Amino acid sequence: MASILIHLTHGPEHPTRAALAFLVAKAAIDDGHAVTMFLAGDAVQLLRDSVLDSLVGLGTGNLRDHYNAVAASGAKIYASGMSSKARGVDAQSVSGKPVEMASPNVLIKLALEHDRTFTY
């Protein structure tokens, strides 16, 4: 199976696109692919419990359900450290979630290591 990187830059301001990225990640995992997610820009705000619990995309479902499925699969989820710091999202605010803060060079490394990259 393929290794897939999903790079998400849209956050709560685009609920359908945000939920779609996690829905696609879940679908790829269900099909047996290895999935890694990298959240940057406004997407890091999706890691807040209040957003996870309330965001629903038009035709793309509930973010919390998709997130829980992706996290339970063991897929690696990264968040841009710079984007997180600028938006007040830190390791404390995503405590208990399988998220690692990362720098832009990690995104480049991941993109080069994976078979395919999807961007939302």
Report the sheet with the most strands, covering strand number, pairing sense and barrel closure: 5 strands, parallel
Helix content: 40-55%
Q: How many beta-strand segments?
A: 7
CATH topology: Hypothetical Protein Ychn, Chain: A
How does the overall form come out from the CA principal axes? Answer: globular
Strand content: 15-25%
Tell me the radius of gyration: 13 Å
Overall number of domains? 1
CATH H-level superfamily: DsrEFH-like
- By oligomeric state, this entry counts as single chain
Any guess at the CATH architecture? 3-Layer(aba) Sandwich
- Count of helices? 5
Q: Give the terminus-to-terminus CA distance.
A: 22 Å
CATH class: Alpha Beta
Structural class designation: alpha/beta
Poorly predicted residue ranges = none
- Strand and helix order: EHEHEEHEHEHE
Strands ordered across the widest β-sheet: 6-5-2-1-7
- Whole-number average pLDDT? 95
Structure at a glance:
With 120 residues, this protein is α/β, with parallel strands linked by helices. It contains five helices and seven strands; from the N terminus they run E-H-E-H-E-E-H-E-H-E-H-E. The protein has a five-stranded parallel β-sheet with strand order 6-5-2-1-7, with helices on both faces. Strands 3-4 form a two-stranded antiparallel ribbon.
Protein described:
The chain is an alpha/beta fold. The protein has a single domain (about 5-120), classed as Hypothetical Protein Ychn, Chain: A (3-Layer(aba) Sandwich), CATH 3.40.1260.10. Helices cover about 40% and strands about 25% of the residues. It has helices at about 15-30, 50-55, 65-70, 80-85, 105-115; strands at about 5-10, 35-40, 55, 60, 75-80, 100, 115-120. A 5-stranded parallel β-sheet has the order 6-5-2-1-7, with helices on both faces. A two-stranded antiparallel ribbon has the order 3-4. Helix 1 links the parallel strand 1 and strand 2 (about 35-40).
